[in-house]
Design a protein that fits this description.
The chain is α+β, with helices and mostly antiparallel strands. It contains four helices and two strands; from the N terminus they run αββααα. The longest helix has 23 residues, at 71-93. It starts with a helix and ends in a 16-residue tail after the last helix.
């Protein structure tokens, strides 16, 4: 997968999340033609299912003194920043305009529970470009 200028912009903004959000660390990621896969660590966030009842009742994952951000905060900012930048580039550098939205309304998240699952997801992300030819969303697939 070779990134075009919009893909490079998305990749750069993803990498910048580490600086923009103290307590957030990015891990493996891949920018595909129509989506992104990535791993985000909320450093210092409590482990899901490992909280005592008093904390669980009042704390969202990632929203406490160790990491003041949630996954939703980070992904929402990522989508907003990349969409704004894309719109600016349409105006400045004649990037192809889009109709509707740059990103879908929601996102998929998954809590990674152990080192084996982490490695499996990293492997999936790394291998994702090799699956593009068979992706139902690939416009070249049905030609």
């Amino acid at each position: 997968m070779r990134l075009n200028p919009p893909g490079m912009m998305v990749a750069n903004i993803w990498q910048d999340l580490n600086r923009r959000f103290p307590g957030v660390k990015t891990d493996a990621r891949v920018v595909m033609p129509n989506h992104v896969h990535g791993i985000i660590w909320l450093v210092g966030a409590p482990l899901v299912g490992a909280l005592d009842e008093g904390i669980r009742a009042t704390t969202r994952v990632g929203n406490h003194k160790g990491c003041p951000f949630t996954v939703g905060d980070v992904i929402g900012a990522f989508k907003s920043i990349t969409a704004d930048e894309y719109i600016d580039e349409v105006k400045r550098n004649d990037w192809p305009p889009f109709s509707g939205r740059v990103w879908q309304r929601n996102y998929h998240e998954h809590v990674i529970h152990n080192a084996g699952a982490l490695q499996a997801i990293r492997d999936y992300i790394e291998a994702n470009p090799s699956q593009w030819a068979t992706d139902p969303e690939n416009p070249e697939r049905n030609r």
